[in-house]
Specification:
The complex is a heterodimer of chains A (453) and B (480). Chain A has 453 residues and is α/β, with parallel strands linked by helices. Chain A is 45% helix and 13% strand. Chain A: This is Nitrogenase iron-molybdenum cofactor biosynthesis protein NifE.
């Protein structure tokens, strides 16, 4: 049952030679910056949103202390996933090993916190001191009735991407297919790679309900452990964040014969296209009809609301730097508001994501190659964009250069997915670009004296 | 044995009631192997904050890249400022062969791309577990001409599995002095007072220290001075190396006429080095939070330098006392729980006691036995301190049990306390680090007389706001 994940071939080199193509799972350049997180973080990103599970970090304080509840994945029910659980390894544990402590911790968590499962994460330290995560989990399992699941993605394995993949392997090998649903809906789908950041999922669900699609399992936003176990009975996988879990959908296709499509729920165009693709995949005439009717109605409603904002924003120029599905989907979404992307870049994406972004952008647009802080500052200086759309680490750099900034990654507190999300997004962009603070910053003080001749 | 033997509860409501019970509290406090919602960060995060206080210094993380990203994120979110840091991104092959290649290449790239005047190198767990020899590696980097032969570098060993962020701050500061300060000239001093603020995440506090010491007419160097790194004025240009303690001031540190440490537990190693090894005239005071602690700080300055306390500071003190008098009825007799770093808790306790507030639960995840004793002394010195219990090495899940079984009126601590405060249905006044769900809390001081006024304002107004929001209509009124 337990697989040594470090032996799996999870790394690959980027097949693209294009400038600015993401260095997928490659070593970061030492000394260039500290923009990239680690495999441990990548595994946490994927599995942490399982809301009714306990997530135990087997490591020193840093790994859990700096990361507990640090992402905006929301839950409509259980809050257990937020709890920062760690073995807090100390010097003596490093010398004598931490397995006993870990076993005790797992048993303690299972007894007192009523989890549906216990995920146990390795870290650099636990891996380097030779703690055997799998054996410790097996040992603890003897005393615990819920599944104890080792997640072996210590930080030094590499980038976030690798951790995402390890998490996909864990889901596929140890969770999916371990329980059967009571009934199977004829139009049951799974979302793969939707983490319900800021409540994104809740902006998509009304559309699914309206057209008669049942969400069997969302991996893993607002997820319940038992729903994920039955994910193999869905009829279709919808890969929402393509970078992280492509391996999972491919394996599910092979083993359970579930076809998959890729899609995005950012922006009007992409939301409609994804809904259409889902309906088409089932090929049911009634479903297709309902979907078209829903799209017609929601597109008109949404366009009517954002029209005045689009009129104001039209002609503004943005720099886009993000990862995953947003890499390309945001190009379209911004254009729907009349905003051109004059420079775009990505670090944590697949080559496919990158190529899609490039294809959507204006051929004259700049592809960001130097993703360090220094590179960003040069870019801002050269292009003076009206808006930067990126993640939290770039935010204050943008502010310092008087550039309006919108957080599109996990640090945001507003949901942008689905038709409702597009309205929220349009308002957020307008609030950002037209905030009066930018003007205040640009005016010299004390005022420069103009001499009248 | 199954997990149901200790808790037969199945429904959510019963489960919550059980978590809130005295029975659960006892089990919770018997917990050894597991830490839940810990209120501490790790050594390198403290080292990073320390390094930001030296002008022109680039913090350099020797170890896993994810660690560095976490530090940046945490500091980013608290200060709402860009935080410059590089990492040498050690991966699996470095775990096998050691991190020397990463360090040499990393130093070279960082030096060329970011053009710092110096670098502060500190380690993460990974480098420490595999036993990297930093001294040798840095010498080899110089020999390989990855950086100039005379390029200033200080390095500290800061594994996360030892101590906490305050230990890392201390280790980095001591390393800066040991590697980059010139040897002390016999009896000659440079006539400057060096103030060591410790792990202090309030740029407002550093400004307050400068204002107070300046008012006394004492030439001052704050070491390290991360005020601008934590709170850079807006100019339209991003300056990666804002003002801080200059390298000249660092080089001249051991010729100081005196050192004053305004925290006792976050810089104890550096304190011993300065006082016992270097034999410099050195004072250490409780973090000057509240009126009495500020009085003691100013008296210590006065005694060290022979300068009197000027009339303008007496006036400031008078205003603080006035503010405390005006607000005493909102705080006197109220019961408090608090958590945070040792020095913060030591100072805050003094403040609460002088206002007649009753500390009940004091939780310090990174507190030592020496800290517990010192805090107990402060509590024993006041009739309002009798109800307090100091819990060192405990986390916020322990605190939750305490709040549920022995309720209080208010919680003081950083943003992480919001879950406990919500469960206990009491307000949280945000003091400490990190504060990531409110703005500007770090910009106003909590030290000095000004800080005392701010604390009175925050605490008293929160109580009044709560009354306005929750009182029955018949008690809703204009006056409070």
């Amino acid at each position: 049952m337990f697989v040594n994940l470090t032996k799996l071939d999870l790394k690959e080199t980027c097949p693209l030679t294009d400038k600015g193509a993401p260095k997928l799972c490659m070593k970061a350049l030492p000394g260039e910056g500290a923009e990239r997180s680690c495999a441990f973080d990548g595994a946490r990103v994927v599995l942490m949103p399982v809301t009714d599970a306990a997530h135990v970090v087997h490591g020193p304080i840093a790994c859990a202390g700096n990361s507990w509840d640090n992402r905006g994945a929301k839950s409509s029910g259980p809050q257990l996933y937020r709890r920062g659980l760690t073995t807090d390894l100390m010097e003596m544990d490093v010398v004598y090993g931490g397995e006993k402590k870990l076993i005790q911790a797992i048993i303690d968590v299972a007894r007192k916190h009523q989890p549906k499962a216990v995920f146990v994460y390795a870290t650099c330290v636990s891996a380097l001191i030779g703690d055997d995560l799998e054996t410790a989990c097996k040992e603890a399992q003897k005393d615990v009735s819920v599944p104890v699941i080792p997640v072996n993605a210590p930080g030094f394995m590499g980038d976030k991407n690798i951790g995402n993949r390890v998490a996909g392997e864990v889901l596929f090998r140890q969770i999916i297919g371990t329980a059967e649903p009571e009934t199977v809906h004829p139009f049951a789908i799974n979302f793969i790679g939707e983490y319900n950041i800021a409540g994104d999922l809740w902006g998509i669900q009304p559309s699914l309900e309206a057209i008669g699609i049942k969400l069997q399992a969302c991996i893993s936003g607002d997820a319940r452990f038992d729903d994920i176990r039955t994910a193999h009975r869905a009829k279709l996988n919808v890969l929402v964040c393509s970078k992280s879990l492509t391996n999972l959908v491919k394996q599910m296709e092979q083993k359970y014969g579930i076809p998959y499509i890729e899609g995005s729920f950012y922006g009007i165009h992409d939301t409609s296209a994804t809904l259409r693709a889902i309906a088409k995949a089932f090929g049911d005439a009634g479903l297709i009809e309902r979907t078209e009717a829903h799209i017609l109605q929601k597109e008109a409603e949404t366009r009517a609301v954002i029209e005045p904002l689009k009129a104001q924003l039209s002609g503004k120029r943005a720099v886009l730097f993000t990862g995953g599905v947003k890499t390309w989907s945001m190009v379209t979404t911004l254009r729907e508001l009349g905003i051109d992307v004059l420079a775009g870049g990505t670090q944590n994406s697949t080559p496919d994501d990158f190529l899609r972004m490039k294809a959507l952008m204006d051929p004259t647009a700049h592809i960001i190659e130097d993703t360090s802080a220094a590179g960003f500052l040069t870019l801002i200086k050269e292009k003076s964009p009206d808006l930067i759309v990126a993640g939290g680490k770039t935010k204050y750099l943008a502010h310092k250069t008087r550039t309006p900034f919108l957080d599109i990654n996990h640090g945001r507190s507003l949901p942008y997915a689905g038709y409702a999300g597009m309205i929220t997004f349009a308002n957020a962009v307008a609030r950002t670009v037209f905030s009066p603070v930018w003007e205040k910053m640009r005016v010299a003080f004390p005022p420069e004296v103009t001499v009248n001749e | 044995m199954s997990e149901n033997t200790t808790c037969a509860c199945t429904s959510t409501k019963a489960a919550v009631e059980y978590l809130n019970s005295v029975e659960y509290k006892e089990k919770n406090f018997a917990r050894k192997a597991l830490s839940i919602n810990p209120a501490k960060a790790c050594q390198p995060l403290g080292a990073l904050l320390c390094a930001l206080g030296i002008e022109g210094c680039l913090p350099f993380v020797h170890g896993s890249q994810g660690c560095a990203a976490y530090f940046r994120n945490t500091l980013n979110r608290h200060f709402r400022e860009p935080i410059p840091t590089v990492s040498d991104s050690m991966t699996e092959d470095s775990a096998v062969f050691g991190g020397q290649n990463n360090l040499i290449e990393g130093l070279k790239n960082a030096y060329q791309v970011y053009k710092p005047s110096m670098m502060a190198v500190f380690t993460t767990c990974m480098a420490e577990v595999i036993g990297d020899d930093l001294n040798a590696f840095i010498n080899n980097a110089r020999a390989a001409e990855s950086i100039p032969k005379d390029f200033p570098i200080a390095f500290a060993q800061t594994p996360s599995f030892v101590g906490s962020h305050i230990t890392g701050f201390d280790n980095m500061l001591k390393a800066l002095l040991q590697s980059l300060a010139d040897t002390r000239h016999g009896k000659w001093t440079n006539g400057r007072l060096y103030l060591v603020p410790g792990f202090d995440t309030y740029p407002g506090n550093l400004r307050e220290y400068k204002k107070l010491v300046h008012a006394m007419g004492i030439p001052l160097t704050v070491l390290p001075d991360a005020e601008e790194a934590m709170d850079a004025p807006h100019t339209g240009e991003y300056n990666m190396y804002p003002k801080g303690t200059t390298m000249a001031e660092l080089a001249d540190a051991l010729n100081a006429s005196g050192f004053i440490f305004t925290q006792k537990f976050s810089t104890s190693g550096t304190y011993k080095f300065v006082k016992n090894v270097q034999k410099i005239n050195t004072e250490m005071v409780t973090m000057p939070i509240g009126i009495k602690n500020t009085d003691n700080f100013l008296m210590a300055l006065s005694e060290m330098t022979g300068k009197p306390i000027p009339a303008e500071l007496e006036k400031e003190r008078g205003r603080a006392v006035d503010s405390a008098t005006d607000a005493h009825q909102y705080i006197h007799g109220k019961r408090f729980a608090m958590f945070g770093d040792p020095d913060l808790l030591l100072g805050l306790t003094g403040f609460l006691l002088e206002m007649g507030g009753i500390p009940v639960h004091i939780v310090c995840t990174n507190g030592t036995e020496a800290f517990r004793k010192e805090l107990q002394k402060v509590l024993d010195g006041s009739p309002f301190g009798k109800e307090a219990t100091v819990h060192t090495g405990r986390d916020l899940w322990h605190l939750r049990s305490l709040l549920m079984t022995e309720p209080v009126d208010m919680l003081l601590g950083d943003s992480h306390g919001k879950f406990d405060a919500k469960d206990a249905n009491i307000p949280l006044v945000r003091i400490g680090f990190p504060i990531v769900d409110r703005v500007n809390m770090h910009r106003s001081p909590i030290v000095g007389y000004e800080g005392a006024i701010n604390l009175v304002t925050m605490i008293a107004n929160t109580f009044m706001e709560q009354t306005d929001r929750t009182c029955p209509d018949r008690f809703f009124e204009l006056l409070r």
